[in-house]
Amino acid sequence: MKHVILTFVAVLALPATAQEYDPRPTDSLPDTAALSALILDRDLIYFDDGTSRYSADGSYTWTYSQANGGGIWEGSHTITDNIVCITFATGMERCDMFVTSGDRLTLLTADGDRYPIREIRVP
To answer: Which conformational region is residue 25 in: left (phi greater than 0), alpha (psi within -120 to 50 degrees), or beta?
Structure first.
């Protein structure tokens, strides 16, 4: 029983970047430079019209669509390989994996969700 508890505590202590993601065999995994070139200082517009923006200065914003209330979440981000970790102003943290699937950039969550990006806009 003691080993089970220690294993459980060790899993909880793993950094967010050690989470499991579920890329498909047809997904390509961009490296840090390629992902940075795709997302930094651009508006990533999702199919629900929400918009994320990863700025080169490390700041991050998520803007909900007007249909979803139009609120804004702010925070900071880091990019390592194809993983982007966000620390929100509230202290909550999340890491997501980006893959390219065909000609579309797609965000994968550690929970196994896939969020394709409809448009990448340079403001």
So the answer is: alpha
